[in-house]
Amino acid sequence: MSKTKAYAAQTAATPLEEWSLERRAPKPHDVQIEILYCGVCHSDLHTARNEWGNTIFPVVPGHEIVGRVTAVGDHVSKFKVGQLAGIGCLVDSCRECDNCKEGLEQYCSNGMVGTYNGQEKDGSGITYGGYSKQIVAHEDFVLHITDKQPLEGIAPLLCAGITTYSPLKHWKVGKGDKVGVLGLGGLGHMGVKLAASMGAEVTMLSHSPSKEADAKKLGAHKFVLTSDKGQTKPVKGYFDFILNTVSADHDYNFYLRMLSTNGVMVCVGAPPTPAKIPAFNLIGGRKSIAGSNIGGLPETQEMLDYCAEHNIVSDVEVIKMSEINEAYERMLKGDVKYRFVIDMSTL
Amino acid sequence: MSKTKAYAAQTAATPLEEWSLERRAPKPHDVQIEILYCGVCHSDLHTARNEWGNTIFPVVPGHEIVGRVTAVGDHVSKFKVGQLAGIGCLVDSCRECDNCKEGLEQYCSNGMVGTYNGQEKDGSGITYGGYSKQIVAHEDFVLHITDKQPLEGIAPLLCAGITTYSPLKHWKVGKGDKVGVLGLGGLGHMGVKLAASMGAEVTMLSHSPSKEADAKKLGAHKFVLTSDKGQTKPVKGYFDFILNTVSADHDYNFYLRMLSTNGVMVCVGAPPTPAKIPAFNLIGGRKSIAGSNIGGLPETQEMLDYCAEHNIVSDVEVIKMSEINEAYERMLKGDVKYRFVIDMSTL
Question: 3-class SS at B261?
Answer without folding.
Answer: strand
